[in-house]
Amino acid sequence: MNSRRDYHSNRTALFDGIEEGGVRASAYSSHEIDEHDNDLAMEGLQDRVNILKRLTGDIHEEVESHNRMLDRMGNDMDSSRGILSGTMDRFKMVFETKSSCRMATLVASFVALFLLVYFLTK
User: Fold this and answer.
1) Which chain regions cross the lipid bilayer (predicted)?
2) Which region among 23-27, 52-56, 66-70 has the lowest average model confidence (pLDDT)?
């Protein structure tokens, strides 16, 4: 556990001078940091790089999944739009014909359908 604490303190000391994109003077000189501390710092950086690589891979997979889902949704909306367009064309045809018999049949069908749904849900 002590070596882990030393590793953390060495890593903190190594990166202590980096702030907001600039480097400030550190309390440690380059002569005081030995090769072992550099290796430990490199391992820490490698771990962070690996974590970031996995994270970006996961983000990429998630974006691809959402793109596929949006494509399917767009295709479903297009097919729904086609069905509704056909239905609207049929309604226009029915309403454009001045046949009172067809209009009465249409109104009676809607009323019967409404009553049927009303009594089935009650």
Assistant:
1) 100-120
2) 23-27
If DSSP codes are grouped into helix, strand and coil, which group holds residue 34? Answer: coil
Helical ranges in the chain per DSSP H = 2-14, 35-96, 100-121
Spatial neighbors of 106 by CB under 8 A, at least 6 apart, are 94
Alpha-carbon distance of 100 to 55, in angstroms, equals 67
pTM exceeds 0.70, yes or no: no
User: What tokens does 111 get?
Assistant: 């009323």
Task: List residues bridging with 11 in a β-sheet.
Answer: none
pLDDT confidence of 24, banded at 50, 70, 90?
Answer: very low
17-to-22, 36, 96 alpha-carbon distances in Å = 8, 19, 81
